[in-house]
Amino acid sequence: MPSSKSDTMRGLAVFISDIRNCKSREAEIKRINKELANIRSKFKGDKQLDGYSKKKYVCKLLFIFLLGVDIDFGYMEAVNLLSSIKYTEKQIGYLFISVLIDHSHDLMKLVIQSIKNDLNSGKPIHISLALNCVANVGSPEMAEQLASEVPRILVGSDTMDTVRQNAALCLLRLYRVSTKILPPGEWTTRIVQLLSDKHLGVVTAACSLIYELARENPEDYKACVPLAVSRLSRIATANYGDLQDYTYYFVPAPWLSVKLLRLLQTYPPPDDPAIRARLHECIEAVLNRAMEPPKSKKVQHSNAKNAVIFEAISLIIHYDNDPDQMVRACNQLGTFLSSRETNLRYLALESMCALASSEYSHDAVKKHQSTVIQALKSERDVSVRQRAIDLLYAMCDKTNAIEIVEEMLNYLKTADYSIREEMVLKVAILAERYAVDYTWYVDTILRLIGIAGDYVSEEVWYRVIQITVNRDDVQGYAAKTVFEALQAPACHENMVKVGAYILGEFGNLIAGDGRSSAGTQFELLHSKFHFCSTATRAILLTTYVKFINLFPELKGQIQKVLRSDNQIRNADVELQQRCLEYLRMTNVASSEVLNTVLEVMPPFPERDSSILAKLQKKKSVISNKNLADGKVENSEGVILLNLTLIIALYLVLPDLIARDPVEPAPTSTIDGASSGALLVDVFAEAEPKLPQSSSEVIAQDNSDKFLMKNNGVLYESSVVQIGVKSEFKQGTGVLSIFFGNKTNFQLAAFTSVVECSADLQTECPPINSILEAGAQVQQTISLEAIGDFMETPLLNLSFNMNGGHQRLSLNLPVFLTKFMSPVEMNAENFFMRWKNLSGPAQEAQEVFKAKFPMDKEQSSIKIQGFGFSVLEGIDPNIENFISAGILYTRQGQVGCLMRLEPNLQASMYRLTIRASRDNVSGVLFKLINPHF
């Protein structure tokens, strides 16, 4: 509509100019506060403001809000604008409502009533404004109140085409909020008939709506299939002039074509032969156009054209019933593999993965094996390399398994860390699935461990052991091969585990060779003992006792190891107990008992591959049943001790020990005292050994555990215990520190001083200089955040004890995140502010390997512990976390937004933090990043 002179709102233009001319943030805030005060006075003092003035001031409030300043007034004036008869005033009112008013606001009832009035006004332009507002806000209350209004407008015979477009998209938004607003049967037939509308804009909007409805109720909307095929046929056979208004860079109605093809993927192939033949012609027309030379060199033409092609190929894959079209689709995708556009190569590889699983097109996909291998080696983008690996895995069969596994092993040496774990699983699965000769399988897995030992999960080396135990023809070869692998100078711990188990069971099969005699095997394994973790040492100890049964001549040598101080006095209870029990068993038990207890591991029951289950779990497509079937027992159950050994230990050892008791070796306590008990009670109270000279201790930083909690023990020794209880509210906080004297002596000259940066102000009153034995004293510290600080305050504690002077320094758990408060906002507000915070100093981002299990519930708890809200339903990807908060400091409030994007397949995170004040995001990032 043409604007009058009064609609230019010169005052708004002047205000925006003033803001842009501000030289500093302080000047900008000052000008904003002045304007807010003026607007507030106008709204309160002048009760006769005309519509133009209200519109102008509401526009100013909108602009101020876009600058990141919270607006807490002006809502009623904006609602009043909705009743105006002028389009521009009503437009500004709806804009304010859409941006600033939350669906739970008190004025929402008035807003809904105004929307109803406009929807029933009969004025298309007012109806469109109301529909746009409903689509933007989309509250459950709107869905309930307008459940009949919007469908009526959508299917009304006298409704303008543009209004029907808006109504379709508005109804789609409300349906996503509440599926109950559109029960099947009431509006079904009339909505489906929209696919036959003359206006392609209406058809496009209706197609999006019907696609969503059909996904929830496919049977009720299956009548859309013949209409979608008919519409698609008219588009596919149309010339440039037929759809000139809806042709995009020489491609007729590409976005509608994509929507129609996607809608058809909701249903199986049509039963009607005529419809099926017509659809076949449509797909053929799309594939034929793909082979035509491009009509334009612009990227928009190729993007639109390829969008339709890929969606048609997806429909071909979905139907999986036409061998000729499947092969044609594969050949078309093969041409994209050599494209210069990264996105095309990625999509082609992804689609070919689906084609490789079909019997019709598997051989056609295999023809591109060399191209895919070359892409794996030369592709720059890691996501494309990931898809190349997926495709190699999908196209692998008995004819090319050895070649593909070899190529994947070679690439694994230089592969990105984010994809190594998945590659290891796929190589292990292919080696087992297509192993004709199991010696090749053993060689492959051992080579896999040697190349990527850190990324070889337990399931992989469990599986090679299970197969070796179950196949007599490979046991000797496995023992020989693993013995040779253990001789490498740099031998991974997973190789030690496999070697220990296999040699413990089948080492006798290679002991006849002087190069791998019994003594050589034992010395080779024991040379790795001190470089291994506790779990691996436990496996080695079991192997040693197995060797006593296999090679009786090693009994004395092995018993010497078992009774050594390093084993008997081992700090790990599990290892200590194993050594004692194994030593007692070998001393007392007869050879018949040892043969029974230490007999060869029985064959494992046949089961589905646990490696495949793990890979499917990573892809999030496995059912709970398959997970249960594929589960492998833990190392205690499968690897460390077999069932016979466990039963024997529990049944035989108590009787043996009762007949021939042995005094356990003394175990060192923390204070150096000896104890006759096998296990040390680390929680037992003991009189501390008090130092006689002055000392200064920099205590180990234990404050990080308070990042997400406010109470607990900060430090504890045999002398003092320091507890913390804190409470924070916006920019201030109170920290209560409790000092406890655990000794029977008085602590004199007891002082506590806090040091902190200039960005954190503290008030720390002195405490009593005498801390009596067994007493506790409290010190309360007041805190205020001046600015964004990084360093935590330091607590310096000093006291005299038993004639010696002691000093202790430790970090107090006061972090910048303690002054954060969560904020709730909708998707529009979040992404609008997110885009505004795009300065280099306002953002901190990094992609990193997950340091903890990627549990969604635990991640949500951590985010809330840092003072952020967890905003549900904001990000299209439900796995992502969207969060918002406000940092309160004396220098002003800082809006903080966070996105945490987990990649479950690669066990990686992308963490992005944006803040309205420079450098704040970097400080928050350093605090939050280590905890994911």
Overview of the structural elements:
By secondary structure, the protein is an alpha+beta fold. Among the domains are: 428-650, Leucine-rich Repeat Variant (Alpha Horseshoe); 695-814, Gamma-adaptin ear (GAE) domain (Immunoglobulin-like), CATH 2.60.40; 817-931, 2-Layer Sandwich (TATA-Binding Protein), CATH 3.30.310.10. The strands form 5 sheets. Strands 14, 15, 16, 17, 18 and 19 form a 6-stranded antiparallel sheet that branches. Helix 1 packs antiparallel against helix 2. The protein is flat, with a radius of gyration of 36 Å.
Features of this protein?
932 residues, alpha+beta, Leucine-rich Repeat Variant, Immunoglobulin-like, TATA-Binding Protein, six-stranded antiparallel β-sheet, five-stranded antiparallel β-sheet, 40 helices, flat
Q: What would the average pLDDT be, to the nearest integer?
A: 83
State the CATH topology of the domain at 428-650.
Answer: Leucine-rich Repeat Variant
| Annotated CATH homologous superfamily of the domain at 428-650 | Leucine-rich Repeat Variant
The tally of helices reads 40
- Our measurement of the CA-to-CA distance between the termini, rounded to an integer number of angstroms, reads 53 Å
Task: Give the beta-strand count.
Answer: 19
Q: Tell me the overall shape.
A: flat
Please report the first level of CATH classification, the CATH class of the domain at 428-650: Mainly Alpha
Oligomer: single chain
Which sheet architecture does the biggest sheet show?
6 strands, antiparallel
Q: What percent of residues adopt helix (DSSP H or I)? A: 40-55%
Q: What class, by secondary structure content?
A: alpha+beta
CATH architecture label of the domain at 428-650? Alpha Horseshoe
GO cellular component, one term: AP-2 adaptor complex
GO molecular function, one term: clathrin adaptor activity
Family: Belongs to the adaptor complexes large subunit family.
Protein name: AP-2 complex subunit alpha
